Amino acid sequence: MSDGPGPAQAPAAPRAPVSRPVLSLALASMIEDVGAHSGGVYLLRPDEPVLEMAVMAGMPRAFAAPWERVGLSAPIPVAQAVRERRVVWVGGEEEMARRYPRIAVVLPYPFALAALPVATADRVYGAVFVTWPGTHPPELSAWERKALTSDCERLALRLARAEEEKRPLGPEADLLANAGSVVASTLGSVEAARLVARLPFGLMSLDLNGRMAFVNPAAAELLGRPVAELMGTLPWVSVPWLNDPMYEDRYRAALISQQVTSFVALRPPGDWLSFRMYPSTTGLSVHVSPARAVAEMARGTPRPGPGPSRLVAISQVLSLAGALTEAVGVQDVVQLVADEIAPAVGGQALLVLGSQGGRLHVLGHRGYPDPHVVERFDGLPLSERTPGAHVLTSGVPAFFDSREQLERLYPCHRTSPDGFAAWAYVPLIASGRPVGTWVLAFAERHVFLAEERAVLTSLGGLIAQALERALLYDAEHRLAQGLQESLLPHTLAPPPGIEAAARYLPATQGMEIGGDFYDLVPSRPLAAAVIGDVQGHNVTAAALMGQIRTGVRAYTTVGQAPEEVMGSTNRLLIDLGTDLFASCLYLRLDPARGRAVMARAGHPPPLLRRPDGRVRVLDLAGGPLLGIDSGAVYPTTEVSLAPGSVLALYTDGLVESPGMDIEDALVDLGALFAEIGHRPLEDLADELVRHSVAARERVDDMAVLLLRAHDG
User: pTM value?
Assistant: First the structure.
């Protein structure tokens, strides 16, 4: 570089610096390093938990249309990679269908995918995904994992450097492929064209976007259009009888799977043509030839349609429908609409309204700077002149391109603006009746075209079905919780010299209700403690649990010894005529003498933490589960309970988890108990539950009862 212009040069006019396509180059390098055939880079928005696609390579952007914007909580590989800060690998079509069904619905083709976070030690910038054909081995190799991880780390450093230099990086032009190899000589190119032109069957070349880059005369004749009119067009656009999403789907399948794909199409009035596509990373070669008409295929005759964008719209609807099937409760539906649907259609905020007792109720909202503006709708009569109430009662959607339009019809909005400039009010109608209103708000003026209104209204139908299921689930859940709470003790009344704390967590599957129970019976002269687990986690198990708990209290109150209480409860369960069994651990507490007498019926052994901090599993004598043998005997064991000792009684839901050995879980629980057993009992109960692997997965309900002896 010189320090200034030379003598024969005029000073150069200042020019804006030319920015290098950092994301595109990094993505191309990753794809080349691991032999992938496509990929994309997402950047994390600074103002909301959303990943936005910045560049894609090797495939048309339309293939990823449903995932242009992805919420961080979405069950999508790139979002999971960011959430968990790790490589997410999907080894093929079956694994994709099992783990990410909404992607498999839209892209039901054989391919493998890896997603990785783009992050430094203290900042996440986005995510990357790359794909391979379905022939890739089912596992990601160590060298592929290392190469991709290193590339993502380098990209994160570049993004960090760009941020420090105040030149934030944004979307870049997509990279489809190199133009292809250059023919060695002009003579060779001419001769190759002549050779192809003489062939009696049709040959075409499609680029990665599906446009025809070459058509020989035989193919043009078969398609019924001149070569000049076909060049640069999409076959399913320029050839009317190919205008069917199925044919575009075959092209997509060939590109994504990188496998030879074929289809047969009817050329009116009755000629059948065979299309065979040979894919590569630069496009497709297509062989076209006559095929015999098959009578059974007449039902598949292509019908006229709106064109190439239709499949993309179908893909988006399929993806969102698949996502909504995963929603359980009302808040799940609201969160999913916020994460998946609102970003996909460009909305910045949403509100879901329902009705009860002739009044509006706010079921959930996201994106509003001031939540109080939204909450003012809660409790308004349906007769109130508001767009939300009118749309809910009439079932007719309303679209407002600007604030002026909204305020002209609904002056009430002038007094409490929500900060947005355009709105879509869509009725949520399920089973022929309105169940709510979906409100989508836009930060700027927004003209709702007829096609967009139709899409939003259709999405409203999908949301309504999910919301109807969620409302029913929430009602059942509230009923189950009320039943469970009524069957467990509201407070614990330990005797002098004993401190107690308890926790109960329902299973995360089913109705979140179960048969685990605990109790502390303040009988005289000695109090008693009990913990048990009735088989199953449903209403029947909960009801039986309530009967067992009542029986234990009654037998304790009349003064039965521990072994008698267990025997009586066993016979009670058998007399009830149920097919369910129960495990149980019963203690008669004597803190004044520093001891406890225990009887056990097939229940996990308790843990005892001694005053010196050592923990041991108590090896108690015991009998069979309650409800099996009316003549069963339940021997007792006396255990020392010196001041400072802590007993941990628990049900198997705390330590049993799929794929984990129960002995390992007990060892881990004992180690944690030894480490933190000195803490206040309430904190200790929380920590034991929080750190349990089984508690995190919660395939079963669980109960924990802690007892600490101290000087009375």
Answer: 0.47
